Amino acid sequence: MIARVVQGVAVVFAAATLAFVLLQLAPGDAATALGEGTSPELRAMIRAQYGLDDSLATQYGRWLWSLLRGDLGWSHDQHRPVAAVLSDALPRSLFLMGCALSVSLVGGMLIGAWQGARAGSRRDRTTSTVLLVLYSVPEFWLALVLLVVFAYHLRWLPVTGITGEMYDYMGTGEQLLDRLRHLVLPLTSLSLVGISVFARYQRNAMQESMAQPFVRTARAKGLTESAVRRQAWRSALLPVITVTGLMLPALITGAVFVERVFAWPGMGFAMIRAIEARDYPVVSAGVILGSAITALGAALADIARDIVDPRLRSP
Amino acid sequence: MNRRLAPAFVLTALLVVVVVAGPLLSPYAPNAQLDIIALRSQAPSLAHPFGTDAASRDVLSRVLDGGRVSLTLAILSVALSLVVATLYGAISSLVGGVVDTTMRRLLDVALSIPRLLVLLAVGALWGALTFPALVLLIGLTGWFDTARLVTDELHALSRQEFTVAARAMGVRGPRLLWRHLLPHLLPTLVINASFGVASTIALEAGLSYLGLGIQAPQASWGTILRDGAGVVQSEWWLSLFPGLATVFAVLACNALGDALRERFAPNHVPSLATSLDVSPVPSFSRTVRP
Fold it and tell me: What ipTM was reported for this prediction?
């Protein structure tokens, strides 16, 4: 557990250092942004004011120290602290990603376990092919297709955003329905791909588990086939949980693109807006935060694995 | 040939033929503005099966030309990743001891930093990147998972009897790696490369779609999608055809990877290659602590 915490700190530290290096390597700074006709004296003054004439080590130390205090800098584009930008965007992203992860996990485990219990059959092979195709579709393109078909063409669901224009004038029930309607398409885009990932793992794990001696024992005891499968499935859970922790960078990636397509105002949307506006502090904060979330997710997956598998519990 | 290998080979061969023979097949030059008045944003027709874009360029020709760029980029950057990963894994497992532990920990840390966010940050800071710079950038941010796989494999291999025998006969370092270990590692690397190319094609499409990958006017599947991004409803052919091409290419490479794994390394847990990111899965049996 302590090792996990140390690793988490190391990840955040590495991400912060990477962000600093990238910012340093980037062409231009606050002084060059002033334009052609600026006098050298004014440039020097600006550089001194922003601390850009200090040594790299001093600037690096100052960068780490301000991060430690939770000061992520100022967003030039949105004219407010980066922390405020993130605290608006982060919950929306976590909500979307949490829903997508849950749906993908449940759907993927059901499909994968069903396949693994009848591995090699025609139905299993057909499902595998369908899943492989889904697995090969980039999320952003799937999102575009869903957007065109269900929002523009059939007009069943709203096009973009997290709530409709009339949201403030609705009753509580209607508000909930409005939010759900906005969630459907982004969630479907992320989940269809996610289901295919988890199902592939669950299928292989289940197939392996069904070949174990304890399954034969269970059958010999005369248990019903469904009871046998339940036992086999329990031991096939581990690889899926391990994968869940490692899935997070991919989930973040998917969310960035899907948020972009559906204008879902989360972290990914904020990052892309910041990139287009060259709003560096928001971009670097996004890198650090994304890494922290990944490290945290991996740690949670470790804990979950310890709970599921008694062999891993410390005596 | 098993049941999966044949269709996977057919898909991949088709992809390669279409891309290599692209210039012969494509009816127009990819950047030729055919007739900016009469042929602007035309829907698919017999003369232009994939339609034309806002600059009156033939989309079929652009998809064919873009395929060469997307595929070349993917193959080159995956090759770079494989070389770096193999070297890293070889140093880590051959030196062993504290060096090995440290190098593994560093990999764990590197893997926790989401690759796409780093790529976005670099794109934001430098803006337009040239093709070689993109290959370097994508290649050098994509090797961590392969390195972990290589390290694990080499560890397992160096406990095998033939390695012990070779060591006992005085074979050392580079020669041991080159003559005795790498041939056994090759199937893993090839399978990994196949999945890597698949995910890199999708990654390039995504980056170019955001304007951070291949730069206009050079066509790639992502840049054509970007041209169509504002007009998905009216000029749907700009989004549909390059998207289908991307899915086809990614599917072909994934199917090849699956088939090769089933044939050559059936015991491997599938690499976690989602469409846009490749992350590693340590082989399940080795992650369970006794």
Answer: 0.85
